[in-house]
Amino acid sequence: MRKNKTTHFMAGIFIILFVGIFLTLSGRFLYIQATAEIDGVSLEAWADKQRTTSYELPAERGKIFDNNGMTLAYDQTSYRMYAIVDETYSDGAEEPRHVKQVEKTAKKLAPLLDMEEKDILGRLQEGIDNNRFQVEFGKKGRDLSLQKKEEIEELHLPGILFREESVRSYPNGTFASQIIGFAKEMEVKDQKESTTKQKMQGVTGIEKEMDKHLSGEDGYIAFQRDKYNKKLLDPKEIVKKNEDGGNIYLTIDQKIQTLLEDTLTQVEKKYEPERISAVVMNPKTGEVIAMGNRPSYNPNNPENVENWYNDVVSTPFEPGSTMKMFTWAAAIEEGVYNGTEAYKSGRYQPNEQITPIRDHNGGNGWGAISYNEGFERSSNVAASKLVWEKIGSDKYLEYLKAFHFDQKTNIDLPNEVIGKILYNWPAEKLTTAFGQGTTMTPIQQMTAATAIANDGRMLKPYIINKITNPNTEKPTKEKKPDVVGEPISKKTSQQVLKLLDQAVNGEHATGKDYQLESYKVGGKTGTAQIPNPKGGYLTGRENYIFSFLGMAPIDDPQLMMYVSVKQPKLGEKEDGSLERGSDPVAFIFKNVMENGLHYLNIDPDKQESDQIKHIKIPELVGKSSETLKQELMKKGLRVTSVGKGKVVSSNVQKGDRVLPNDHIIMITEKPKMPSIIGWSLRDALKLSSLLELKTETFGDGYVKTQSIKAGTAVKSKDYLGIELEPPNNKKNKD
Q1: pLDDT (tens digit per residue) in 334-381
Q2: Which of 131, 139, 530, 623 lies in the 20 to 30 Å Cα band around 97?
Q3: CATH number of 615-729
Q4: Catalytic residue (one of 277, 321, 680, 688)
Q5: Does the model's pTM come out above 0.85?
Q6: Active-site residue, 296 included
């Protein structure tokens, strides 16, 4: 009896337990059926998500052009290779769609991908062993050219497929790179999906500053599919169209920028300076026509970069005597300047508590000279006396602020850094007058100088001309000259221009090295001391920042340029004399300004007999290419005639003035590919543009190989692959 009671009791317990479990499970099922939710997750939405697949429609990043429409940055199509290793992908197919012969595939791919056969075999086998659907091939399998893709496709290897991608390309290499900057694929978080994806983003320069405009907006296609990734009969397809990024046209001019880049490279190679900065502007508008720095970098391969910053806008330093033009402008505007008044040069000490100011010839000076001559000789004493005795230090500070030396120019480039007006103690107020202590950037100086070149009106510098719609090319935003201040009057500006003229062309001028052949230049030299980290300033004839700010023609400046070279290595000239700090600065200034003014068709203001002999281009279109070639070669030009017959287009136009040995390219009615081996990249791209070829470049420097053989007839949209090598590897340099 006792045993039966225990049995019945335990049976009752189990019945209650099982009933409880049953009711709990039944209740849970009924709840799920009624609400279609588990732990707050909608089963319907979850199932819908599992059935739905989506493909991104990436927006094309906008292009960057110069002011003439030459492409400086664009998205170039590349290909990523991958291999399907899941054999179920071939189910039902007549031919295998996955990698079936692993060893054969690895052997054939190895030479084309420049990979070891064992590495490819290892990747494929690892994917198979781990039941992966597909595998990729790392860096070697990305950024493949169309030509390489086609070579691999010709092997007819099952399971080897390609995905089209975009890579940002900069066809001119190290060209305005710190203006343009670069963009690269970066991991970006999708806020809606809480996932990450790869997206092209600007890192430096215009690519960074205008990233939002350039990026556009990605689209997508979403539809429902079965487990084999096939669309359902009712796929509920959703399409959101992508919006391509806007195109940006810069104010820089490709030809003047090329002149600048070439001269900077020559100076960098010869003098090995710590830094070089240069900027060319139109003082009538504020447009930046060219800008460059050294060290620079190639945005196609931004590795081992010495200097990411654009020093023209991001690196303030003590300017030196270029500051004096603003000191004299303040004195003239204030009505306290008498240019013929004499003062004692050499040394100046307002009181015993102030360290004496000395002129740059060791404090010896030149005796009693006029303030006009003091400017011509770049006298520190004259500048100090003007601030201390004529203008007044408080009033002078007002002029410094009127010239915006205390604020950003707001040029449309990233990472602008302003200098600092060091103006707390009497000694600092005196040294600021001749550019010591107080710091500023080259772009700040150029902005202030527009007031001198432009009748007292100071203009905001800008480098973006317009932004256009990528489909219609209609401008969505255009820049115009913007007057940001009038620190001096027109009358004062004209007086300062005369002083700048004398500082280059006068009897005692410190800027004689900057005279041009065809144009009269005005400007001011600068020799700025470099602070020593241990205190004081560095010593030695190389330990300076040598600079020049000049404009021409000086009677009505059309072009203005600033150049600075920091710590160049100065040796001896051929005549045995010592090189001076002005030599590398003058080389850059004279080459760019002389040729730039001629290129812009600015009328020379010097006598014809004093000018460089430029060659004027005659009418080319419609003329016999054979006759023109002989005629132009006799004038000292290099000429390439692309085909025979009448000329239909050229890289120059009637009336253009070019220098001897310039390269003229003429396209004829029936063009045939010339040999471009040894050509510079820029000349090769000019030819490609004239022929409207689809061009792909590999490497940097000069042309080593060309995919279209010389003598082959060419037509628009033909593919041209160009392999380049650096100049030091090239046997016959241009």
Answers
A1: 999 999 999 999 999 998 888 899 999 989 999 999 999 999 999 999
A2: 139
A3: 3.30.10.20
A4: 321
A5: no
A6: no
